[in-house]
Amino acid sequence: MAKQNNNSRQSNSNAPVQSFRIGYIKASIWCSTGEAKFYSVTITRSYKDTDGTWKDTQSFQPQDLPVIAVLAAKCTDAILAYQDK
Questions:
Q1: Which pairing describes strands 4-7 and 18-22: parallel, antiparallel, or unpaired?
Q2: Which domain holds residue 45?
Q3: Do the beta carbons of residue 45 and residue 56 sit within 8 Å?
Q4: pLDDT of residue 11
Q5: C-alpha to C-alpha distance for 21 and 19, rounded to whole angstroms
């Protein structure tokens, strides 16, 4: 499996509270507040376009799915830990 990277919590309100990356795939946890506090997750895959510019997509190949499953499990654990606080 590709290199795993666990980014720490960030304090900027426009930034995810935590991100996990394995290879070119990243899962980010976002916290939204209103009447109630809730968390959501975005999953993206980075790629280089024909000009060599890095971009993100939410479209995945079948071989990406096991990586997405691992990232989803990490996000689940992190969200449950946030909710226990």
A1: antiparallel
A2: 4-84
A3: yes
A4: 46
A5: 7
* Count of structural domains, the chain: 1
Taking only the tens place, the pLDDT of each residue in 19-59 is 999 999 999 999 998 898 999 999 999 999 999 999 999 99
Distances in Å between the alpha carbon of 59 and those of 29, 35, 56, 62, 67? Answer: 18, 32, 9, 10, 13
Helices (H), 1-85: 65-84
User: How is residue 29 written in tokens?
Assistant: 């946890």
- pLDDT at residue 7, as a whole number: 54
pTM of the model: 0.82
The identity of residue 71, as a single letter, is L
Interatomic CA distance for residues 30 and 42, integer angstroms: 8
| CA–centroid distance for 46 within its chain | 12
